[in-house]
From TrEMBL:
Protein name, as recorded: DUF397 domain-containing protein
Provenance organism: Streptomyces pulveraceus
Pfam families from the UniProt entry: DUF397 (PF04149)
Start and end residues of each DUF397 domain: 9-62
Length: 70
């Protein structure tokens, strides 16, 4: 997906973000997909776009601790 397809996206950062430019932002798109990007690129960098099922699986992995460093 190119960045032009995300022109109207409303991007959000975590409320736990400390204000520096090293954050991940997400946008919940009208068609149910979820876009994710790195905030330090000032909206000019690439974005990953997930289907609703992919995003649900990601959320489940976070809750289950699947991504913890060991």
């Amino acid at each position: 997906m190119n960045s032009a397809d995300l022109t109207g996206a409303v991007w959000r950062k975590s409320s736990r973000s400390n204000g520096d430019a090293n954050c991940v932002e997400v946008a919940f798109l009208d068609d149910g997909r979820v876009a994710m990007r790195d905030s330090k690129d000032n909206g000019n960098g690439p974005a990953l776009v997930f289907t609703p099922g992919e995003w649900t699986a990601f959320e489940g992995g976070v809750v289950d601790g699947e991504f913890k460093r060991r």
